[in-house]
């Protein structure tokens, strides 16, 4: 028991230091520093708002659509940060892996927690806008942390899987970049899902990220948000994206544990 306690105590200390280092390095050398964690999603929001809301008139039938749009951008950016950062996490720490013996999962966790800090900062900005626009807070908004945890778990699982896969297959970086570009437009972030035919909406909402974004919009912004349950008319259908998250989590843990003993040799 003492050995187990010592092992995880060492991992937690290392995780804390890596999270602090990773968060500092994100904005090292930039003039505005940590302000970029706020300005980047806001800048993207302004561009998309002008194009899709002002000019193309998206979301006219959705209350508080600007906040609805901003929340989607913030959640997608978090998912992209965790998965894109996870790809090169192990390879980027190759020198450290060859010199020290420590749990390899700590490296991927550090990047994920660093991105999680950014997510909470950005969600704080979203809540400020919600207060300014007098968005009604509903009691079911208390369920939002559960959906955020689902998003964290799914992004982390993909980060573990991609980081281990990238050690052997360096082309995965380019493949994932193209995939994420397509996934951004295939996820109802910049357009309301009500614009799509019912059959297309049903397919898109089986994507766990789309399901999570819509659920959080429903919980925090407006109950008029279509969710996977309302589109299908069945609460049990929610188990499909949740099962996808569980499947990828198990797969990622198995694949990472299987390959992690050889990381130092293969990098």
Describe the structure concisely for a colleague.
The protein is built from 13 helices and no strands. By secondary structure, the protein is mostly helical.
Task: Sketch the topology as an H/E string, one letter per element.
Answer: HHHHHHHHHHHHH
Helix content: over 70%
Shape: globular
Radius of gyration, in angstroms, nearest whole number = 20 Å
The assigned structural class equals mainly alpha
What does this structure look like?
The chain has helices at 2-26, 36-55, 65-87, 89-92, 94-99, 105-132, 144-168, 172-186, 198-204, 208-220, 228-232, 239-259, 263-266. The chain has 267 residues and is mostly helical. 73% of the residues lie in helices and 0% in strands. It is globular, with a radius of gyration of 20 Å. It has 13 helices and no strands. The chain has one domain.
Topology:
Blueprint: H1 2-26, H2 36-55, H3 65-87, H4 89-92, H5 94-99, H6 105-132, H7 144-168, H8 172-186, H9 198-204, H10 208-220, H11 228-232, H12 239-259, H13 263-266
Helix pairs in contact: 1-6, 2-3, 3-6, 3-7, 3-8, 3-10, 6-7, 7-10, 7-12
What structural keywords apply?
single chain, 267 residues, mainly alpha, 13 helices, globular
